[in-house]
Structures
1.
Amino acid sequence: MKDKFAPKGKLIIVEGVDGSGKSTQIRLLEKWLRYVGIPVFFTEWNSSEQVKEIISKGKKRNLLTPTTFSLLHATDFAARYERNIFPLLRAGYIVLADRYIYTAFARDVVRGCSPDWVRHVYGFAAKPDIAFYFRVPVEISFDRIVKNRPKLKYYEAGMDLNLSNDPYESYRIYQARIVEQYESMVEQEGFTIVDGTVDIEEQQKRVRQKVIEMLPQQMRKNMSTGAPNQ
Amino acid sequence: MKQLGSSSRSLRYYGKGIPYLQDTEVKGRLIVIEGPDASGRSTHIGMITAKLEADGHAVLNTGLRRSELVSEGIMEAKREHMLGRRTMSLFYAADFADQLENKIMPALRAGYIVLADRYIYTLMARDAVRDMNRRWSYQLFGFAIVPDLVFYLDVDPEELVHRVFQKNTFLDYYESGADLGLSDDMYESFMIYQRMIAKEFRRMQKRYNLLIIDGNRQISEVNADLQKWIDHFLGSIQH
């Protein structure tokens, strides 16, 4: 990347399976940063106005192949990246992303896309300054999700993978494979691991500590209420 | 009746391909016609289709932006100028992938001759003139099947602009590259843009085995040319 385009902001992302607690944590992080007066932007996977509808239409009709599934999510990501993430980073914001390219690396590869190909497709995305990975045993994340949901959606349960005719069984196998992919990325991608089984407060403490270490001097000085409780 | 040759072949991809379709066997053939708007693509496809069907082949016509999945979305987003370049290019890639897997592949498996009105090359040329990294595009389309024949109808912008005005009274926004801010003068912008695109096709010629056809001539002349290539190719695959 050319210097004149080097972003002044910081990119912090969270990854982990559904039910790993990552969304709770990044929301708490967002609230804290706002509270102390740091400019923050929050974005989440599969949320671009223009693209979301098309994806959900395709999903409803079970029309997606692994390749179109992958490319449509890449389109959604690019829309958010071009419109928000990259310009805001350049403007000096702290950009918080609930799921980032690693979600695609995990899901698309589990669905049968080539790992190299998926990585090339997302080759334009900036590397995060911190990538938190919420590690949770599959049984725990499974219980957290299933308790709150009477019915699992087709793609959410990985039904397109033909793992099992029972959505819950399919979901369990699917999630285990996703975890496998995440674990294989931990070192290469430099994930910061958060133990998703400990108390919410405990996790948040670890997250904030890591974030403070990374904040530019100027931002740390400008924080209106100082450091969080340690 | 002519036959396409009875044996099945495995697919050839440009790059990594589609791992879960690696073992797919096909009997049909894929022929692509590329070229700018008003270069005569659809006329030629109509003529070639008629001839191939008269010879007893099953033919499927396909083109960019005809997929059920995302076509409407693309048109809408385009109208509203809401999406960035990278987003548009991935959108088109998704649309293309949908057609490839759900239309082209099944037809090839069933032994059809698929005539594609544009393929990945137009998409890559558009991206390249919009400053997108060429290597990124090549790799993005690594899942595309290598066609048996690819024609590029090369028409001089001076000739092309007359043909456009015979069809419409105005120059299309995107076909003039108006989003690139090349010139405030639409005519000028169209000429520059078409030259840039043509240059990209020439650049891709070797890598992708493009057959560049002089499209400035009469339709019948150009068509005779295309037909000759196709007959020759079909002849060469029959034992």
Note: The two ends of chain B are 14 Å apart (CA to CA).
2.
Amino acid sequence: MKKLPPILAWGLPVVSGLLFVGLWYVVRAASGLQSWILPTPLEIIEAAWRERARLLAAAGNTAIGALAGFLLAGALGFVTALLLGGSRALRAGLYPWLLVLQMTPVIVLTPLIVLWAGPGLPGIIAITWLISFFPIVVNTTQGLLSTDMNHVALFRMGNASRLQEMLLLRVPSAMPYYLAGLRIAATLAPIGAIFGEYMVGNSAGGTGGLGFLVYSYNTQIKIPALFATALTSCILGFIFVAAIAWLNWAVLHQWHDSFERSEH
Amino acid sequence: MEAAGPIVKFTSLQKRYGDGPLVLDEINLAVQPGDFVTFIGPSGCGKSTVLKLVSGLSPWTAGDLSVAGGRPRQARDRQAFIFQDATLLPWLTAQGNAELPLRLRGVAAAERREKAAGMLARVGLEKYTGYYPRQLSGGMKMRVSIARALTLQPQLLLLDEPFGALDEMTRNRLNEQLLALREQLRFTAIFVTHSVSEAAFLSNRIIVMAANPGRFHAEVRVDFPYPRRPELRERSEFQAKVNEVSRLLHQAEGAVSA
């Protein structure tokens, strides 16, 4: 793909962002809506500054829940994919049930999760895990099964054991798929944690995370602060995605075609 | 080297895939140690299948095939396969790729590093050991692939159109390099190609195949002594040999449509 010149690559998002903010002010002025229904961007930033201590503490709590759930999904997802990719019988036996689990709306499972994992952080981690797990398993399993047939023949010719074939061939060639799964999971994990906090965090009492703040600001009709919470969630999500983008680069840039070839 | 006796022996060999038509029929051939045998023929004549059978990647249907006096699978340690494309693992460097067969065998790290580096040096890639496949040209990738195949010092090398995708100059140079390696390492080779002049330059025996089902059409002996120099290609005897094989190839193709 041809690249945009840097001035446009940086300039265009800024321009569209400014246009959007302008449009926001126009809508606010034209509609006559009040601040507690549609706050202006400036009012949101003011609210964010006012509530900075609570927002930061809440973001920290959410980050812990999201990270724990994400790591759990990353590890268990990988192991599950190894089982599914390594055995046809396990794949046939387990995959449909995995789909059933994925098809069941999380909101239906939430009371059960609270019942089993307990309210507060354990329940939040469980919900985050549940939401992030599936894309990792599906992507990684696909990757483990997409190995180049000539490479497989090469390993057969070398009398490779099944374990060698898995560890030295299938796992490395599935890495781009695993990382793609992690990237999707990284966008889902903060959402899962916030949803979890909204649903089960409050029942634990205490400060809670961003999800609890949503609940709390909403009941107090602090709408600018609610928007500020949304902004904070965005930033948290962005940090997650950026971290995975970095990991993706670190693992793949040397050899994978998705990165530009380095000249020597 | 083995004592007396052919290293590969085909006896009335037949092959079909599943319930499909015969792919190979009545193949009889004894490959002697030191032979460089080339299979050439129209596409669909089953010449690549021959290599799959010898390597034990695919079972035959009837007849018999022995490699080093035993079943093909049991002889895997003595043979190496070079594929149509280099089939390097993209996440490993040239060095890592050349080490792979040794690694699969559980050879200790220091020894496999030394052996692989030595073989990469023999194919002229000593300066590129740390390069990833995507950083190498097509010809260089194929040389890594050759080095990888030779790290185990196989008695028998199977080559399935390895230079088909390369330009003529690179192909000629790799042909010469392959023969030079053969002088040093003394492997027997079974080679598959579409190129008559490549076959004539490399081999001492050329098997011309006909298709539907794949079968022997003729065998041509090429008696130019080894080591062969690039100048050989310009000699009239060489050209005559190329013409002879081309003529047989046309005959074989005619036999298909008949």
Note: Residues 14 and 20 of chain A are 10 Å apart (CA to CA).
